[in-house]
Specification:
61 residues; alpha+beta; Alpha-Beta Plaits; two-stranded antiparallel sheet; binds iron/sulfur cluster
C-alpha cells in the first residue's frame, strides 16, 4: 500500500496544504507540482488523504 496522488484532481497551482499535516514530513513539492510521497517515511496514517480539499491524495491498496 502507498499514498498516491491523482494528478487529474490536483490543480497544481498552489502550495500543497497537506504537506503541513504530515507528521512524518513524507510529502514534498517541487514548485506547485503535485506532491510527492516518500514511501520510506510514510506510515499510511491517512492525515494527508483526509486533509486534501480536492481529494487528490488516496491510499492505493
Ligand atoms: S499518510 Fe500520513 S505519513 Fe503518509 S504522507 Fe500522508 S500524512 Fe504523511
Amino acid at each position: 500500500m502507498a499514498v498516491s496522488v491523482n494528478r487529474s484532481l490536483c490543480p497544481q497551482n498552489h502550495p500543497c496544504p497537506s504537506i503541513r499535516v504530515c507528521p512524518e514530513k513524507a510529502l514534498k513539492q517541487n514548485g506547485y507540482d503535485a506532491p510527492l510521497v516518500n514511501k520510506e517515511k510514510c506510515t499510511l496514517c491517512g492525515k494527508c488523504v483526509r486533509f486534501c480539499p480536492m481529494g487528490a491524495l488516496y491510499i492505493n491498496k
